Amino acid sequence: QVQLVESGGGLVQPGGSLRLSCAASGSILSINAMGWFRQAPGKQRELVAAITAVGSTKYADSVKGRFTISDDNAKNTVYLEMKNLKPEDTAVYYCNADITPVGRFQVLDAWGQGTLVTVSS
């Protein structure tokens, strides 16, 4: 069983910063990519940022220049540095990973349970 656990969410004022973390655990052979999605009430879940095993990154246009994604392969952990936060960044942030489990051939699309980020004055 593979699990993703997010942490670091909370309440911050506009212009503030937060650092989200997501740790993957379980019978993991390799992680192909990890990323962050977010979902606000009444809206669809959207990709915020992603990073591949070779270090390629991708960001939503709305967060470019403000958010930075990074990972620690030794710890199976991905981070999201969020700076200059805006009220429109308020959402539940979900960690996502494409994982090859031990002893299996198919890639598993794993999701965390989410961490709430609220940007408000």
SSE map:
Elements: E1 3-7, E2 10-12, E3 18-25, E4 28-39, E5 46-52, E6 57-59, E7 67-72, E8 77-82, E9 91-101, E10 108-111, E11 115-119
Parallel strand pairs: 2-11
Antiparallel strand pairs: 1-3, 3-8, 4-5, 4-9, 5-6, 7-8, 9-10, 9-11
Quick structural gist:
The chain has strands at 3-7, 10-12, 18-25, 28-39, 46-52, 57-59, 67-72, 77-82, 91-101, 108-111, 115-119. It has 121 residues and is mainly beta.
Describe the structure.
With 121 residues, the chain is an all-beta fold. Helices cover 0% and strands 58% of the residues. It contains no helices and 11 strands. The strands form 2 sheets. Strands 2, 4, 5, 6, 9, 10 and 11 form a 7-stranded mixed sheet that branches. Strands 1-3-8-7 form a 4-stranded antiparallel sheet, with no helix packed on it. A hairpin with a 4-residue loop joins strand 5 and strand 6. The termini are far apart. The relative contact order is 0.33. The mean pLDDT is 95.
